[in-house]
Amino acid sequence: MDSQRNRCVAVRHGETEWSLARRHTGRTDLPLLAEGVVQAEALRPQLARYSFSAVLCSPRLRARETCRLAGLDDGAVVEPDLVEWDYGHFEGLTTDEIREEWPGWDLFRDGAPGGEQVAEVAARADRVIARVRSFDGDVACVAHGHLLRVLAVRWVGLDPTHARNLLLDPASLGVLGWERDQPVVERWNLS
Fold first, then answer.
1. 165-176 tens-digit pLDDT
2. Could you tell me the residue range of the domain that residue 172 belongs to?
3. What is the pLDDT of residues 105-161, one digit of tens each?
4. How many domains would you assign to the chain?
């Protein structure tokens, strides 16, 4: 790791009713389940290893609760670009339910009718990356699964469709950093 470059620690929120049921949760503002609270609190020791220059957090309740419970809320700034993908007509549906009407649907290829397309989410991720890289020191980003997957692949310069190749469990984190001058995914899906 190049000590002159900062890292982005991507933190996914804890479990909610819809994440447990694998429902697409974009605009719907759900609280954490009791298990999600436990998960978020369990992130505290891992995150305490870092000295963050900044903490950016999605405005959604589940992310803000995770931020607080994980010990990151002191000075945290709400970052609207960290909000989850807008799933439009697919909000609240599972992938299986969506594919009953749209066989072969792939979020990272097809986007969401009435919501966002992958290029729009990638543009938001790119703005977050620019903001993270403007800080002197590591930055935590507390947000959502699909958005953080896009953020990770954009960090390393890949097309956002490659985000389909990453998983990010509830209340897990990834570390985006550097090897020499090359942006890398240092660690991923840690809980």
1. 999 999 999 999
2. 8-16+35-85+116-190
3. 999 999 999 999 999 999 999 999 999 999 999 999 999 999 999 999 999 999 999
4. 1
- Centroid of chain to Cα 12: 5
H or E segment at 40?
A: helix 34-42
CB-based contact 5:28 (threshold 8 Å): no
Residues 6+ apart with CB under 8 A from 165: 153
The pair of structure tokens assigned to 186 is 């240092």
pTM for this predicted structure: 0.96
Q: Is 149 among the domain residues? A: yes
- The CA-based angle 160-135-178, given to 5 degrees, is 55
Using N-to-C axis directions, what is the helix angle for 118-133 and 145-155, rounded to 10°?
60
CATH of the domain at 55: 3.40.50.1240
* Structure-block tokens of residue 27: 């605009």
* Domain-located, residue 102: no
Tell how strand 77-78 and strand 8-12 pair up: unpaired
* Catalytic residue ranges: 13, 84
Quick count: other Cβ atoms within 10 Å of Cβ 18? Answer: 19
Whether residue 127 is contained in a domain is answered as yes
